[in-house]
Structure prediction request, 139 residues.
Amino acid sequence: MASKMIFINLPVTDLERSKSFYETLGWKVNQDFTDENAACIVIDDNICAMLLTKSFFTTFSTRPIGDTTATVNGLYTLALGSAQEVDTLVDAALSAGGTEEVNADKRAQEAQVGMHGRTFLDPDGHQWEPFFMAYPGAN
Prediction:
């Protein structure tokens, strides 16, 4: 059986700016699925973000595109291998023009269960939440 993959489709205002942002995070552009309307960003072997120009994005749904700069439309949570990986990814996002959203109550709750997480917004306001949690019995 073939492994499953997830593709997160994100509307973007400026495709080149968004490609550059995600490349700064260390993620790669798959040129086979990239053109003037879309870019495939490879996050992991089975996870990709499809950056779609807003005009192209509207061809996939009759519903209007949400304003991600004013409202939350989704939380893209990514489990990483260490707290350092979380910090490195968020620091890269900030250096590339992203912004960090700090929720002290959420961080306190995460710390109680041994989790380290941070939140960043990409230039279009899409909310990413990388985290690390040491599971009992994990090496």
Remarks:
- The chain has a mean pLDDT of 93.
- The two ends are 29 Å apart (CA to CA).
- Helices lie at 15-24, 54-57, 83-95, 104-112.
